[in-house]
Amino acid sequence: MEDTIIGKIKKQDARHESEVSKQTGFPSPATHYLEPSIDLNKELTQQKDATFYVRVEGDAWSQFSILNNDVLIIDKAITPRAGDLALVVEEGDFNVIYIPLSSSTHSFTLWGVITYIIHKVK
Questions:
Q1: Name one Pfam family in it (predicted).
Q2: Which ranges constitute the DSSP H helices of the chain?
Q3: Are 76 and 61 within 8 A, CB to CB?
Q4: CA end-to-end span of the chain, whole Å?
Q5: What are phi and psi of 40, to 5 degrees?
Q6: Strand pairing partners for 96?
Q7: Contact by Cβ (8 Å): 110, 86
Q8: 65-72 contacts at long range (C-beta below 8 A, 24 or more positions apart)
Q9: CA 85 to CA 52: how far, in whole Å?
Q10: Averaged over 48-77, what is the pLDDT?
């Protein structure tokens, strides 16, 4: 069997360039109604440097509608008011409580005020 050289490979002269599609027909009436995307950090946080996200494991706080794998958005810069939901440290463990209406003998260290609870739907 012999190898026969037929010729050199030649570079193609014209090259096909893809183009942006050309619009045909009437323009969409909705093209002027474009909304910017939603930035959840901007919408859900007030103090960026004092905001923390905590993922919850377990259903120990279900009485507060906080379930397994929920995400708590906690702002440490907010001054707590009576009735605010807060993450506190009690006896070395994290706990969720409502800030009491009056000062009580209940001892805890405030870690931050819970501003949002993010639930997974499915």
A1: Peptidase_S24
A2: 40-44
A3: no
A4: 67
A5: -65, -35
A6: 87
A7: yes
A8: 65/117, 65/119, 66/96, 66/117, 67/119, 69/120, 70/117, 70/118, 70/119, 70/120, 71/117, 71/118, 72/114, 72/116, 72/117, 72/118
A9: 15
A10: 94
Of residues 75, 34, 71, 77, the one with CA closest to residue 56: 71
**Which residues are registered as beta bridge partners of 72?**
54, 117
Domains of the chain: 40-118 (2.10.109.10)
Q: Name residue, tokens 């103090």.
A: 47
Measure the CA–CA gap between 96 and 110, rounded to whole angstroms.
Answer: 10
* 78-87 pLDDT per residue, tens: 999 999 999 9
Question: Quick check: 72 pLDDT over 70?
Answer: yes
Is the CB of residue 99 less than 8 Å from the CB of residue 81?
A: yes
How much helix, strand and coil, in percent to the nearest 5, is found in the chain? Answer: 10, 25, 65
Q: How far apart are CA 91 and CA 86, in angstroms?
A: 16
- Residue of 114, 53, 118 whose CA lies nearest to 84: 114
